[in-house]
Amino acid sequence: MSNVVIPEVPKIFKEAEDFLPLLGTDHVEFIVSNAKQTAYYFQTAFGFQPLAYAGLETGVKDRTSYVVRQGKITVILTSPMNHPDSKVLSDHLIKHGDGIKSIALWVEDATKAWEETTKRGAKSYMAPKVLRDDDGEVTLSGIHTYGDTVHIFVERNNYSGIFLPGFEAWNSDYRPAELGLKYIDHMVGNVGWGEMNKWAKFYKDVMGFANIITFDDKDISTEYTALMSKVMSNGNGRVKFPINEPAKGRKKSQIEEYLDFYNGPGCQHMAVATDDIVYTIEQLRKRGVEFLYIPEEYYERLFNRVGKIDEDLATLKRLGIMVDRDDEGYLLQIFTKPIQDRPTFFFEIIQRKGAQSFGKGNFQALFESIEAEQARRGTL
After folding, report:
1. CA 36 to CA 187: how far, in whole Å?
2. C-alpha–C-alpha distance, residues 194 and 215, integer Å
3. What is the rounded CA–CA span in Å between residue 337 and residue 378?
4. Cα dist. 321→228, 278, 343, 359 in Å?
């Protein structure tokens, strides 16, 4: 793993039991229809760097995988091949479209992590197994979580290879400049009606997480739609999973739209952190990444709500970056439009300047912007 500094653990995370414990997010795996072209998009648009490859040339017959990395963010992009063993991947792709299958968590002991979580009620996805090559060995295990999403526990203390056994280095000459993305701040799961508390309890009881923040439909709503959310975190604060469910409204909410197009629960978005959000967003926009529109009225009230900040207001307004403040400081955030044809997965770009919250003060403007996009799609 690359040597990127992660902020010190704030007090709000220390209620978690953290019996696993988790060292961070090892990688995230997307199942996509064309891994080669998707990897090119991640490189070109977001500045991810080529890292590793597995496919026909490496002896893998049922899939093709490209691995890209920026900072501590490692992404596998996998497509099924025309092979009998590809059915699980193919079925996932047909049902969900491009989306996240696996959120892999870095642990000291993958066998213990599997034993501890399964004895607490998790359904096993993968019993512990050891992968070996000339660079050492990696132990993997896994459990099911919401929908078809799984958590893979990765133990790599005795491995010095490029990524995992079975992968070879991807030595590409195409390396667009990185854009300052450092690590995964949080990953959001959308679940069905009445399922938020069930999955919050799962993360508490099975994985030792704490519920650090709760939002109800009074916090996250507009005239037409609403949602509810509980933010779950492990003890060191490096792994945070907000869990969203729909709430009753006059029209179809963003969560309902996601569930319809994804055909069930899944990972809605991944928030990636930067130390200079103005630079990152300027570069992303130049590379063609589209973001949700924030109305001008939002910025007219900004200083009265958040007080003094370091950034220039005109620049934030031009780029569509939102700001919120809590007792610890403030944060800046912005949301892309969905990055595939189905209105499902998107990215959040976030910069924290002390704040440990999740932008509650931005919910109104964000929801109105999302509803405008839903109206354009005819799904509101």
Report:
1. 24
2. 14
3. 16
4. 23, 8, 21, 12
Phi, psi of 36 (to 5 degrees): -65, -45
Contact 322, 366 (CB under 8 A): yes
Left, alpha or beta for 378 (phi > 0: left; psi -120 to 50: alpha)?
A: left
Rounded to whole angstroms, how far apart are CA atoms 367 and 244? 14
Neighbour tally for 125: CB within 10 Å = 18
Q: Count of alpha carbons within 13 Å of 311, Cβ hemisphere only?
A: 28
Per-residue pLDDT of the chain (380 residues; tens, 9 = 90+): 444 444 455 555 556 677 888 999 999 999 999 999 999 999 999 999 999 999 999 999 999 999 999 999 999 999 999 998 999 999 999 999 999 999 999 999 999 999 999 999 999 999 999 999 999 999 999 999 999 999 999 999 999 999 999 999 999 999 999 999 999 999 999 999 999 999 999 999 999 999 988 876 555 555 544 567 899 999 999 999 999 998 776 567 788 999 999 999 999 999 999 999 999 999 999 999 999 998 888 888 888 889 999 999 999 999 999 999 988 999 999 999 999 999 999 999 999 999 988 777 676 666 667 677 777 888 76
Cα 36 from Cα 64, distance rounded (Å): 8
pTM beyond 0.85, yes or no: yes
Phi, psi of 163 (to 5 degrees): -150, -75
Alpha-carbon distance 278 to 287, whole Å? 14
